[in-house]
Amino acid sequence: MQYPLCRSSPRGSRRLFEPMLAVAACTLASALLAAPAQAQPQNFPSRTVRIVVPFPPGGSADIAARLIAQRLTETLGQSAVVENRSGASGTIGVGEVVRSAPDGHTLLMTTGDFITVPARLFPTMPFEPRKALLPIMRVVSVPLVLLGHKGAPFADIKQMVAAAKAAPGKYTYSSPGSGTVNQIVMEGLALDAGIKLLQVPYRGGAPAVTAVTAGEVQMSITGPATATTAIQSGTVRALSLMTKERPPFIKDIPTIAEQGYPNIDGSLFVGLYATAKTPPALAERIGQEVRKILDEPAVRERLNAVGLDVAPLMGEAFRDYIKATGEHYEQVVKAANIEPNR
C-alpha cells in the first residue's frame, strides 16, 4: 500500500519541511502496518481470553482453570472463559491452542501429559507438543489416588497385589486416557509388583471415576478433585495415594511408599501454556498475573479443598522440570513396554 505523502512532491524543492514530513509519514505508516504482527504485553488483553481445557468438565485442570478464569476476569478488566474441548485423548483441545494466534488470548490449561509423556505414545498427533507449545507456568501439583470398587476383594495395595498375582490380567483400572501419566504410574506399579493389570481408558478423569463407582472396572487412578466426592459417599475405597509423601491436606490415605513401593511417585501437574510463537514478554506478563492469583490465601484454600497443591513454577525452572519429568517417564515407558496410543 502506498501513502500519498510517500510520493515525491512537485513543490518539494520550494519547501524544506515537505521531504522531512514525507519521511516521517512513511515511517509512521510502516510502523502502523507492522504493529499487529506481534502482540505487546501492555496491550493485553484487548478482548476475551479463552482458556481451553482438553478434557470434559470436572477434572483437576478444569477446576483450576475455572477458578483462575474467574479471578482474571476481575483483575484484567476483560472476560476470561473456560472452554472444554475434549476428544482424541485431549489432542483436539491442544491442537486448537497450537493453531491459535500468538497473542495470549487463547491459552491451554492441562495436565502435563502432553508435554512430558514420550511423543511416540501419540504417533497420530499432528504436532510435537514440546515444540508447538510455550510453557508459561506450572499451576498446581496433583497427587494421584488409586481407588477401588467397593465390591473388589481388596482394601489396600498389599491385598490388591495378592489378588492380581492370583489372577493375572483379571483386574482392570480406568484412566483418563491412554498414554497419560495415570497409565504410566499404574503400569510402573504393576512392573514393580510383578503383576498384570488391564487399563480401560476413558475421556477424562470424571468419566473414569464414574466407571469404577458403577463397577465397570475394579480400580481407577485419578486426581483428588474427581476422587473426593466418590470417597466421601462411600461408593469407592481409597487404596493408596500414589506419592512418596502425604500432602498437608490429605492425611487419612496411606501413600504407596508407606505400603512398600518407595520407587513410585505418582503425581501429575496442571500447567498453563500458549502457542509456541507467543512473545516471551507476553507469556511472562500472563504468568505474573496468574501467579498473583495463586498467591491469594482464598484461592489456595479453595484449590487445597479439592486436593490440588498450589505449586507455581515459571520460566526456565518450569522448562527444566518438564525436561526431567519427561526423561523419567521415558524410562518407565520402555521398562513397562507401554504401547502407543492409536
TrEMBL record:
Asked whether the keyword Nucleotide-binding is assigned, the reply is no
Q: Which UniProt keywords apply?
A: Receptor, Signal
Question: Which Pfam families has this protein been placed in?
Answer: TctC
Q: Which InterPro entries match?
A: BUG, Bug_dom1
Q: Does the keyword Magnesium apply?
A: no
Q: Look up the signal peptide feature and give its range.
A: 1-39
Q: Which family does it belong to?
A: Belongs to the UPF0065 (bug) family.
What protein does this entry describe? Tripartite tricarboxylate transporter family receptor
Q: Which organism is it from?
A: Pigmentiphaga humi
